[in-house]
Design brief:
By secondary structure, the chain is mainly beta. It is built from two helices and twelve strands. Helix content is about 5%, strand content about 50%.
């Protein structure tokens, strides 16, 4: 879990961002792909599914398969440990939950030009927030293909590959059957 904390800013910013800086959030795009996050010489990678603000990201760390589910429609965030048969639920605004795009919507991106990445035409943006600078490569329909920057003195990268656009099955955004969901304990 500690490995994921530095990615909070990136995950805030890594859902759907349209190429038009004036309307920088676009949560209507639905897609799936493979998300790869790198920091401190570590990497986590797995399938990501996104549809109208709902997000599911699957990965394995230290042999444990995990799933995060973001459900803005029910104001819930889930961290699920599949191999342990359990998961934790928290309100989406809990500081321990990975943030959503509303924070990124307050940032002012600077458009830096057009490029091709992963076979897609993208717009490159720079976002500066409290001495942290990130670069975003965003498709014309608002999907971030690559994000990179320095956070806490460490290089951070988030990439999306194997992109497939289209609606995602609703059941992907529900906790899997047989998983015991408990409220996130207070710290």
């Amino acid at each position: 879990m500690r490995f994921l904390r530095p990615f909070i800013f990136l995950l805030v910013s890594s859902v759907a961002l349209p190429a038009a800086a004036a309307d920088w959030l676009n949560q209507e795009v639905a897609y799936s792909g493979t998300r790869t996050m790198r920091m401190n010489g570590q990497e986590i990678s797995g399938p990501i599914y996104y549809d109208h603000g709902k997000e599911r990201f699957e990965w394995a760390t230290e042999g444990d398969r995990q799933v995060s589910l973001r459900r803005p429609d029910s104001q819930r965030f889930y961290m699920i440990m599949l191999d342990r048969g359990m998961g934790m639920e928290m309100k989406i605004d809990d500081p321990r939950a990975m943030m959503d795009m509303t924070v990124a919507g307050t940032l002012a991106p600077e458009e830096m030009g057009r490029e091709t990445r992963e076979g897609e035409s993208v717009t490159k943006f720079r976002v500066v927030e409290e001495q942290v600078t990130f670069l975003f490569w965003v498709t014309d329909d608002g999907i971030p293909l690559h994000i990179e920057g320095i956070q806490g003195g460490e290089r951070v990268e988030v990439s999306l590959s194997d992109l497939e656009r289209g609606p995602q099955p609703a059941e992907l955004f529900e906790p899997p059957a047989g998983i015991q969901i408990i409220p996130m304990p207070d710290q």
